[in-house]
């Protein structure tokens, strides 16, 4: 096999790989756009406003710092959802339960023999509140996870586009070299 044939063969393979990367880039861009739109629409439909002012003042400094960037904004992104879930809902749940988890409070409630006492009723209410808080936190953290996947897909699409351009340029150089060596 002479050098010209080899150059053309490698150049065609490069073009084929560039086409694969281009298709992959389009698919990743579509996925990123779809996921971002869904996260935005699902969060916006809940009409959650990020805490501001006095609602932030009662929080620990690290929780307050995590929420200040979003203060007063409508929640529409995965990053906002994570901040709200971890530093607002989570902080309030930990404050109410003394740092105990839903599982710990629920186990304590289940072990109580007389659930009609004021202590049992208060623990049952805390158990219910922690259950609802954990459910909401889980949903918000799923929005964060999907938002992160959208971001990764967007970055991967850029890498795929750049790779496709590089392969096209290298393939064109290969075809030029094939003509020169013919």
Commentary on this structure:
The chain is built from six helices and no strands. By secondary structure, it is mainly alpha-helical. The chain has one domain (about 5-180). Helix 1 (about 5-45) packs antiparallel against helix 6, helix 4 packs antiparallel against helix 6 and helix 5 (about 100-110) runs antiparallel to helix 6. The longest helix is centred in the last third of the chain and has 64 residues, at about 120-180. The two termini are about 10 Å apart. The mean pLDDT is about 95.
Strand-helix topology:
Elements: H1 3-44, H2 54-57, H3 61-68, H4 78-97, H5 102-111, H6 118-181
Helix pairs in contact: 1-6, 3-4, 4-6, 5-6
Please, how many helices? 6
Calculate Rg over CA atoms.
27 Å
Q: Fraction of residues in helices? A: over 70%
Task: Describe the main β-sheet briefly.
Answer: none
Q: State the end-to-end CA separation.
A: 12 Å
Q: Beta-sheet strand percentage?
A: under 5%
Low-confidence residue ranges: none
Mean pLDDT: 95
Number of strands: 0
Classify the secondary structure makeup into a structural class. Answer: mainly alpha
> Please, how many domains?
1
What is the assembly state of the chains in this entry? single chain
Shape: elongated
Write the element-wise H/E pattern from the N-terminal end onward. HHHHHH
Keywords: Membrane, Plasmid, Transmembrane, Transmembrane helix
Organism: Deinococcus ficus
Transmembrane segments: 12-35, 144-175
Protein name: Aromatic ring-opening dioxygenase LigA
């Amino acid at each position: 096999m002479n050098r010209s044939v080899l150059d053309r063969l490698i150049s065609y393979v490069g073009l084929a790989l560039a086409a694969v990367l281009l298709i992959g880039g389009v698919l990743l861009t579509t996925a990123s756009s779809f996921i971002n739109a869904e996260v935005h629409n699902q969060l916006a439909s809940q009409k959650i406003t990020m805490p501001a002012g006095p609602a932030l003042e009662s929080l620990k400094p690290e929780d307050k710092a995590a929420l200040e960037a979003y203060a007063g904004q409508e929640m529409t992104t995965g990053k906002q959802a994570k901040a709200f879930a971890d530093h607002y809902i989570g902080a309030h749940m930990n404050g109410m339960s003394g740092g105990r988890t839903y599982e710990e409070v629920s186990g304590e409630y289940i072990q109580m023999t007389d659930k009609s006492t004021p202590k049992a009723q208060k623990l049952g209410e805390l158990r219910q509140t922690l259950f609802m808080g954990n459910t909401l936190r889980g949903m918000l953290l799923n929005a964060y996870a999907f938002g992160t996947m959208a971001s990764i897909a967007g970055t991967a699409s850029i890498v795929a586009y750049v790779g496709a351009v590089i392969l096209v340029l290298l393939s064109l150089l290969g075809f030029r070299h094939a003509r020169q060596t013919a």
